Amino acid sequence: MSRSRAAIILAAGHGTRMKSSLSKVLHPVGGRPMLDWTIALARGLGCEKIVVVVGAHNPDARARAEALLGPGTTALQDPPLGTAHAVRAAQAALAGFSGDAIVLYADTPLIGAATADHVFTTLAEGYAVSVLGFEAEDPGAYGRLIETPEGDLAAIVEAKEASPEQLTVRLCNSGVLAAPAPLLFELLAEVKNDNAKGEYYLTDVVALARARGHKAKAVPAQEAEVLGVNSRVELAVAEARFQAARRHQAMLEGVTLIAPETVHFSHDTQLAADVVVEPHVVFGPKVVVETGAVIRAFSHLEDCIIRRGALIGPYARIRPGSDIGENAHIGNFVETKKAKIGAGAKANHLTYLGDVTVGAKTNIGAGTVTCNYDGFDKYHTEIGANAFIGSDTMLVAPVSVGEGAMTGSGSVITKDVPAGALAVERSEQRNLDGWATKFRARKAAAKAAKASPPSGD
Fold first, then answer.
1. What is the pLDDT of residues 90-128, one digit of tens each?
2. Region Linker: which residues (predicted)?
3. What span, in angstroms and rounded, lies between the C-alpha atoms of 12 and 56?
């Protein structure tokens, strides 16, 4: 039977290079705060206890962590004295826990669950400490993982402390480390700060464990997975790597992306097989698109469901709460919000549909607006099946249009329209015979008079 698991998530960094009033770990990748990514990873690993270590300077990170995990799930590191000191801050929260603990980072959002799980399984194979490493294209300032001839991990050496020979090693430390929790905290108590920075390094745990006769192991990961974010530049790199991976996954799952590099996903975007996505489409959070739907160019979707065979766009905006029915059409410059659009219904041009239910096979003419807001409250519009809403109709909610009813173009509808009725609300047209001809003649004469030079004396 596998051992119980816990996660210690380090989120106490100052993030000064982000130059932001928002805590670094709350900046999003794929529409999701980086802290949320790491908490989701810990949950996906089956961690029964999760502790987020924060600093006194970032109460917003503490609030976010406790909103996701509940009260008492954060620990304070104050002042910040290094990574080992940060992990020790979680000791009280894990008092009595005898399982394995993994140290994760709230600014490293792209680590996959399978990769992190390998860190735990290495402990089950008899190693006392397991460290996630990667082959760096440019090792630079990364700590180096020094291995024994037998392939075990001998030590982690910080770049500033490394010898010239050690600096040639390309296997680098991601910072992710796991060990049995009781042993981890025993080893942390032995860590000293006699180094160039005067900090307590978590990396010293490996050498301390080996000094006790324990074995340690480096677990391989891809460099792209373990990218840490410390600046807006690195945030953009993380976003690009997430997007590239998500696009690739979508195409493998049967989605057609005509210009993949122009399509932007959120962390939870769900596209079924045989969905077609044209260029320059943005998927905000909570979007589900069923099979056979087509999302045309320059459309933006958020918190909505697009049913089988629907056609969206181009230049459509589908806002939160929208449910677009099977084979429905939402065309260019149409915006929906909290709109339930029935199967086969069409709104092809220049329309706003907010707080509305539209029945099956109803046609919404160009320029239609559901007037749903009076400056204080929102109101609902109900449109039945097989209705025809004429162009430039203003539907002043709350109002209903019955099944099979019609509205005349240019009408302002303020009263319910019975099923099968025609509602027309506009002034009677008057034709003034000859008026336009006389008007043009008068204006032309005035223009000519202005252009003629004055006669001399």
1. 999 999 999 999 999 999 999 999 999 999 999 999 999
2. 233-253
3. 8
Domain boundary among 221, 242, 264: 221
Residue 451 domain-assigned (yes or no): no
268's tokens: 């939870």
Q: Do you know the residue count of the chain? A: 457
Number of domains in the chain: 2
Nearest to 409 by CA among 368, 360, 381, 370: 368
Q: Is 349 in the active site?
A: yes
Binding residues: 10-13, 24, 77, 82-83, 107, 143, 158, 173, 230, 319, 337, 352, 363, 366, 372-373, 391, 409, 426
Q: Which residues are documented as binding site for UDP-N-acetyl-alpha-D-glucosamine?
A: 10-13, 24, 77, 82-83, 143, 158, 173, 230, 319, 337, 352, 363
Is 436 among the domain residues?
Answer: no
Q: What is the CATH number of the domain that holds 277?
A: 2.160.10.10
Given a cut of 70, the residues of the chain with pLDDT beneath it are 1, 454-457
CA 232 to chain centre: 16
Query: Which residues belong to the annotated binding site for Mg(2+)?
Result: 107, 230
| pTM, full prediction | 0.91
